[in-house]
Structures are given as structure tokens and as C-alpha cells.
Amino acid sequence: MGNIVNTLLSTAISLFSHVGTYSFLDLTGVISHPSLGSFTLTGKGVGEITISMANDKTSHEIGIDGAILATQVPGNNGTLILSIQQTSALNNWLLKWANYLQNEQTPRNEWLMTTILIKSKSLKIEHKIAGVSPQKIPDSQYQAQGQRVTWVLMAADIQTT
């Protein structure tokens, strides 16, 4: 009986040894602005995060003879989309941040001083995002049940390693 269990266990280990495990709980991050301090992102109140580059990195021009001219396209700008609970501490911090940036008393040179660092321990990926500003304050939703709000943040530079 012991040999059968050991054989089954050994077979299961060999079948799944190449399988990785993803966990949203392994995601951490920090949003920083020199005048407002920072907010540590732990996934609490966060439903979804999407990081998107704005531009393709390559374009192809096809000649009349079928020859391809490939061009490397510069630019590392893009967006960070946060779908978060409307009652979360992150939503409150982002609202304070957006209102601060839009205030007439805030120096204009602070508009792009926000940086964000997001790390996924399980995927071993790190996103360094700089020159961040809000596209707009999200739409407000009032319903019988709590909802998520979607923050779209524009970024001048996104580096993923």
C-alpha cells in the first residue's frame, strides 16, 4: 500500500513540477508623490490592475515589390487602469491626489511628479511607472450595493522588467 501511495505521489509531482502558481496576494506596490507622500498598495480593495503601453514598438512598411521595411518605434508611455472598491483607502488617496494636482495653488511642475512601482513576486515582474497623472476623476456610482470605480492613470514612462 505504501509503495502505491509513493508511486502516485511521485507521478503527481512529476506531472505538475512545471506548473507555476499565481497569486494576486503576491502583488505589492507604492504610489509616491513628493508633496503627498506615498500609498502602499497591497491588493486590499483592488479588484484589477491593467498596465498598457500606448504604442506599438515596431511598424512595417511594405514596398510595391513586397520588401519589408521594419521601423523601431520609440516611446514608453501608456496607461495604468485600477479597478478598485469605491470605499477603499486607495480610492480615497487617489481622490486626494487628483484634487491636489488639479488645485490652482499646486505648482504645475508637480503634475508629472507621481511615480508608481508594482511588483509581482509570483511572476517575478516589476513595473516602474513615472510621470503619472490622472486622466480624470472616475465616474461616481451610487447603487444598492457597493461598486468598483475605475481610475485611468496616464504615464509618461513605463519600464517592465
| Overall average residue pLDDT | 91
Structure classification: alpha+beta
CATH architecture: Roll
Low-confidence runs of at least 5 consecutive residues: none
Fold-level CATH name: Pnp Oxidase, Chain A
Explained architecture:
The chain has 161 residues and is an alpha+beta fold. It has one domain: Pnp Oxidase, Chain A (Roll). 18% of the residues lie in helices and 42% in strands. It has two helices and nine strands. The strands form two sheets. Strands 2-1-7-8-9-6-3 form a seven-stranded antiparallel β-sheet, covered by helices on one side. Strand 4 and strand 5 (68-72) form a beta hairpin. It is flat and about 75 Å long. The protein starts with a helix and ends with a strand.
How would you sum up this structure in a few lines?
The protein has helices at residues 2-16, 89-102; strands at residues 27-33, 37-41, 46-53, 58-62, 68-72, 78-85, 114-120, 125-134, 148-160. The protein is of the alpha+beta class and 161 residues long. A hairpin with a 4-residue loop joins strand 7 (114-120) and strand 8.
